[in-house]
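User: I'm curious whether this sequence folds into something compact or stays loose and floppy. Could you predict its structure so I can see for myself?
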Amino acid sequence: MSNLKVLNGFDLGDVLAIASVHPFYSPTPYPPRREDLPILLAKHRESAIDFKLSSFPLTWKEGLYKEIARLTADRDPRNGYRQETYISTTGGGSGKGSPMVFATDSQETRQQRAAIGALLRSCGIIGPGDWIMTMHVSGHLYRALDLMAEVLEGSGATVLCAGSQMEQDQMVETLIEYRVNAIAGDPGQIMQLSRYISTLSEDKRRQLLINKVLYTSEPLTPAQHSFLSSVLPNVAVSSVIGSAEAGPWAASPAKLTETTKGEHHADFVYDQRLMHLEVFPFAIEDHQGPCIADVQPLPDGEKGLLVQTSRQRMRHPLIRYVCGDVSSLHPLPELIKAEISAEDACHYKVARIYGRDRRISFDWYGEYFEFSVVQEAMRTESWGILQYQIIRRYYEGDKDNLGIVLELRVLRHNEPGTISEEELTRELRKLFWVFDNNEELFGLCYLTDYAGFVRSTTGRKVINFIDQTQD
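Assistant: Here's the prediction. I'll summarize afterward.
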């Protein structure tokens, strides 16, 4: 492992050489062990075979996780998948069932975190002199807490980890006592703390020094961003994106986050030395469409499905993985390039992420709802919705009753510029086509805090849509 670098990823040809003999991409029964890598790479170099990324087919989640399930359960000593690995798990999902896992070499994982920490520092997001409190949880197998703590340490920042049992008042006292200037968490955690801070006296709020917020896991809505700015004026809001399969791989500096606020996308800076990205036409999802081998990646600027090839995953490579995000690729904008060293800037690029759930929809009382349309409505700034949850369930839990209930749970703020609760109720009833003949099957509940939402079992995230009729 002597060729492992902190800032640069592996040589792409070496990664492809290991992939060619890995069960994810070949008939080989077992992945290599760590001590096997130098031998395999030496054979590859002697063979002088030049592997091309375009010769590898696209990798889909269903096929990948079928192979992962087999390797996870096989205790054969030849199985390198179960040796010296770090297990990442998904944090979202439906809130039921086992989380999906992805194993990476534990040394490679540590190096990746150091590299992403360096990216945060290079982009001016966080670094030496910053004291940051992370509120990420570590429930069940979820690893967001140790992941983000180590990434932040890699940036040079000083990190405090707020425990899962830490109440909001204790967090505030910690922020004041240690003169903390930055906080990190998913939007739900950041909103909970912000709502608590908004109830404090002016004298107490003046003691807080927060000037940076770093969020992960999901987008910050315009209403959430607006509320955060009203509670913590002049705060720089940034974000990090990652997954169980790819790990953390890109970040959105405050200037990019600000320019895309209110848009239906988010821009993330990534280092091409660490991650190779391609965008493919949506047609690759259609089994009736053209052969994938004949489909070429789209040029920069065109929207499609994001495909990832990690240059930080060697022992268990991630090659041409269709991650599920809708994206387009763009050059680094001048406002970011001007603040980054020329040595790094020439390797940086922007991935514009439009989100997922492009085809998710649901029906209720004879009406068909596109989830993307519902999402857009819930982002209406005047509605002041900080978090929402839609639950589709049987009437009173009775499967014999043909009526299906659509339950909507809403948490909102009441800052200036928002409509009244009565007006919002009318808008929501209009959105979901609620009339006298079906209103008994529509439930609208306004929550006062996050305790009323159903959470995922791993990352404790609020799940926006739950279909309990499928349980």
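Summary: DSSP finds 14 helices and 19 strands in the chain. The two ends are 46 Å apart (CA to CA).
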